[in-house]
Each structure stands twice: as C-alpha cells, then as structure tokens.
DNA sequence: TTGAAAGCGCTAACAC
DNA sequence: GTGTTAGCGCTTTCAA
C-alpha cells in the first residue's frame, strides 16, 4: 500500500505539503507541486478515502436508495445518478429496499456509518420516519414525494400525464374507462389517480369507483386487477384501461391474453412509463413516457448543487410525453357513429 | 454524532471495553456487556465504519463491477450479490463500466481507495490488465472468464447450452442454421460458438462461416447481424437462427419483423438467456435460460468463503435450462417430409 | 510557501 | 476482564 508518506519522501517534502499539492494545488509553489504530482504518478498513489473521510468528517459519498432495482425504470434512475455522481468524483452507495421498511432502515443505518454527504431516495410511506436515522443529511426525494415538509423533490408531472392518457381514451369514444392504480399511500399513484379523475370529469364522464382497482405495483397485481375489471358484467365492463405503472401494465396485457381479448379491438390500453417491452410488444403500447434518465440525473445534480451551497428549487417536475402507438383504438360504438356519419 | 466515547461514558467503562462489548462480546463480562449494549441502544450509537476500517486496514466492503446495469441479466446478478453480501453485513460498492476499459480502470481506482476486502467482476478483455490496480485482492470473475491463470470463476455452461439449442434446431430439420455471436474476445461468446460448432458437426451439418455473424452484444448489433444473414440468397439463407445473448435476440426479432418474416413459420429462432421479454413476446421465445440470480448469489458466497479462508473451487459452472416455447418449428422441407411419410 | 504536530473514531497490543 | 496507549493515513491548524 503506497501512502502519502511515500510520495512525500520521493518528492522530498513533508507529508503536509504532499497532501496540499494533491488536494489543494493552489496552496503550493508550482515547482513543488509538479514534483509531488510526478512522484504520486510514478508510485501509482491513490489516497486512502477512509483516512481522508475520517479526518474531514465526511466522505465524498452519496447514498442512493431505490425500491426495486430489477424494475428497468429504477435501473435507469440508478444509472443516471451514478453517471452524474461519478463525473463529480462522488462514489455512490446503492441500496435496494424492495419497498420494505425494515430493509430501508437497515440501508440508512449502514449508510450512516459511511458518513455520506447526501442521499437520494425513492421514498416509501416509511421513509419519513426512517429518516430520523440520518438527522441533518441533505436528501432528495426521487420519483415520489414522502410529504415531509420542506423536502426536496424531483418528480414527474403525474397528474398531467394521466390526464392526457385518459382524455385520449375518452376522445376515442370510450365511456367505461377503467384504471389500475398503485397504492394510495404513494404520491405517484395518488397523482395519477387525480389525473384520471379530472379527465373523466372534463369529458363529462362519471367517476365509477368499481372501475378503479388498486394494485401493489407488481406484474401480478396488474394481472389480478385487470381480471377483476374485465369480469364485470357486459354493459358496465370497461372497454379501455389506463394502467398506473409499467409492471402492472405487463400484467394487464397478460390478463387480456388470458381472456382472449385482442388489443385494441376488444380492449384499449394505455400504460404509464415507457419501456422496451412496451415498444416491441404487439401491438406496440400507447404510453405516457417518463424521462427516467433525465429524472435521475437531475436529482443528482440537484443534490450536488445543494451540497455546494447553491440555491436549488425545493421541487421540480419534469414533463411526461404521451406516445401514441397501437394499443388504443376508437370504441366500438364510437367507430359506428363516426362510420355512419 | 454519537461516538464510542459517549457510549463508554454512559456505561462507565473505557472506550476499549465498549468497543469489545460491541464487536467481540465474548471478551467481556456479561454484566458489562449488557450495560454497554444498553447504552449503545439508548444513544442510537452506530459505529463509524471509516474509523474502524482505517484501523483494521480493510473495510467490510465488497466491490462489484458489471458491464451493463440496464441489462436485466446484469441487474439480476447485482441484486443477488447485494442480497447475499448484505446478509453477511458487507456493503457493496457497485460500478458500471459500459464495457469500457477506461471506466473500469476508474472504478478499480476508486474502489482501491475504499480498501475493499474482495471484488466480483464481470470481466472484459481489459480486466486482466486493469486488475494490476488492485494487487492481492481476492477476485471472483462472474459470468465470463478473463483467462487469468488461477482466477476464480463462476460461470454457466455456455457450450452445453448452445449445443442443446442448435441440436434442437437441427433436429427440427433445419440445415441452414445461422448464429449471431458475441465478441470473440469474450469467453461466453467463444463457448457458445463452440457449442454451435459441435452441434452442427454431430448433426452432420457443415460449418458455414457465412452463417455466423458477430455482434457487440447490443440490440442494434443483433438487428444488423440478422439483417445481413437474412439478406443471403434464397437457397443459402438460414431458416433458423441461434442468437448468443438476450439483447441481440431482441434485435433479431425486430429484424425479422422488418422483413415481414413470421416466427416460427418463416424463421425459427432460439435465444440465449431468458427474460420477461422472451416470455411475453408473441410467439414466446424458445431459449437457453441461465440461472442469473443463483449465479450472482453463488459468486458472492464463493467470495465470502474465500475471505473466511475456506477452500473453494477455482471454477464453478452452473447448468443452463433449455426452455421450449413457440419460436422454433420444423423446417419447411422437414415438415413436408414428415407430412408425406 | 512549507513543516511540525495534533487528531478524526476506532481497535489491537500490552499491561494489570 | 478491563484500562492505557498507540496508531491506522490523512488534513489542518499553527508557527516559522
């Protein structure tokens, strides 16, 4: 292990000067500086981050806590955060919580011991409480908002995205539009639900509670919820479905297949969040796309700005994009009307 | 920041005793131990890992370096490694290299500063050289083998998996079986290529170099390679394709679509590595499935055993599973023969 | 502009 | 079984 002492010796200066030459070059005479840097290079010196962090009472480390790294949306967030952090010489400590409060607590505890400078978290309902473990730490909430007063958040405009999707379905003539919605203690799910509600209202359609089914964000939940909705009596069964996240959308498509329903002929479908799956499945899915990479990158940039003492907006919303593909079509009755006009 | 000193004071012992009571309880009298643990609990004490690691010259940290975290196969490996490491109280520092040597070097350099106890890496051709940065560090190579003598590897039986797939296609009567293969400086690609070769031989089919196209593991490469293969003159164009990894398989399916070829009627396809995409696309893809989670978990368990000084096998191969779904069918001529028999 | 010295929080020797 | 002491590798006073 080559240490600062070795570099100092080779460059014939004290350890203190060697340290300065490498970390704060402006404090050192040019010739000395070059001698030290040269020595460091030839020895292949790498600072011991542990010692440095211990001394400085804080490491150049950021925490990242996501709820499901196997979800491509989250994987993309993680990659973006890593890319930005790395460019600024920060190391990211990443943890996965599977939406479990206990795992999140553990992640926070471990993180604490590493003296991170900041944290980016996709919050769960338990996050508010668990953050007690990291008092005073700058935190950015990503994708969802926990509701903590004053929290910094980087989100997507869920309400508008959902509104756009449901308005589109209504415009296609659908009068029974179902929604598969996430847990109502998670902000994204609430907001998408709101958008759904408002779109129905603006389209002059009644809100029918029996057409709204909750699910726990996973594929299986989406499948079960879709089955429940499609089991309704003819006349009141939805002819179109708006699904609140990417995983549940997969489930909804599979449910349609289970029942032999063809998209978009027998059922129109619009999902929230784009993915390669949505792009390549047949028919290609009409979706509300989220700028996942940009979202993660922005969260990280915001955190780094915050750490630099710059003023940053407390809350940022990125726009979603509505992408019209082939999984939604005019309702049967609508097509008839238009055809006979 | 509550430190060990605070705990010691509250428990009325020295810092050393407090340290022992928490880290090596068997060295401390029971009553003292309880007093200290109680004090730690009430103060919410968490050890400063930095100080501990500095003192012990090594942190309870593992490095994990993968080449593409957005690839679900790699995401699964990563989750498995994390799960196992966490259960043993290790923290994982994860890096993504995008198959770029420069990024890998950087990852190794940063890692070095954190004094990890071991490293799990999905190697690239550059890894062999780059590992000079981490002399003496226990390393497990995951999924691929770099060829370093004596290296510990946890792999899948690529040759056998590929052999099985190609034999299956040959058994279906295909005589022109193309392969889209990965970079030949990566072990998995070489081995899968070998399996392809041997299967052809055992089926009495000639190896035709023009039916083998290399690709750089990405979707776009697979698509381009498939286009090239399918552009061959009738008579010598492949009627079946074996694709060497999951991303390129997506590309091959899209190429078939571009050309209006139907699977499996106009073209039979077998991919390497299963995925939700392969399961839910229509027709569902016949694939050689890899135990991704188990692979990652085993790599981590092996590393931890190694660190505990236990004897571990230098190389482990996990079996692949051939999953017959709907993307491969008897060749036209074969069907004819069988039909007329 | 540089060096000497102290100390970050913890654990391992060594004494008792 | 417990306390005292020293030191991990670095940065940062403070003094020169």
Topology overview:
The structure is a homodimer of 341-residue chains.
Chain A lengths: L3 H8 L3 H9 L6 H14 L5 H8 L4 E6 L5 H16 L3 E6 L4 H13 L4 E4 L5 H4 L8 E4 L9 E5 L1 H14 L5 E5 L5 H16 L9 E3 L4 H12 L9 E4 L2 H13 L9 E5 L3 H5 L5 E4 L2 H16 L7 E4 L2 E3 L8 H9 L1
Parallel strand pairs in A: 1-2, 1-3, 3-4, 4-5, 5-11, 6-7, 6-8, 8-9, 9-10
Antiparallel strand pairs in A: 10-12
Helix pairs in contact in A: 1-2, 1-3, 2-3, 5-13, 8-9, 10-11
The structure holds a DNA duplex (16 and 16 nucleotides).
Account of the protein in words:
Two copies of one chain form a homodimer. Chain A has a six-stranded parallel beta sheet, sandwiched between helices. In chain A, helix 1 (4-11) packs across helix 3 (30-43), helix 2 (15-23) packs across helix 3 and helix 8 runs parallel beside helix 9 (187-202). Chain A folds into three domains: 4-47, no CATH class; 61-156 and 292-318, 3-Layer(aba) Sandwich (Rossmann fold), CATH 3.40.50.2300; 158-290 and 322-340, Rossmann fold (3-Layer(aba) Sandwich), CATH 3.40.50.2300. Chain A has 341 residues and is of the alpha/beta class. Helix content of chain A is 46%, strand content 16%. Chain A has 14 helices and twelve strands. The A-B interface holds A 1, 44, 46-51, 53-54, 57, 59, 69-70, 72, 75-76, 78-79, 82, 86, 91-96, 106, 109-110, 112-115, 133, 219, 250, 253-254, 276-277, 280-282 and B 1, 44, 46-51, 53-54, 57, 59, 69-70, 72, 75-76, 78-79, 82, 86, 91-96, 106, 109-110, 112-115, 133, 219, 250, 253-254, 276-277, 280-282.
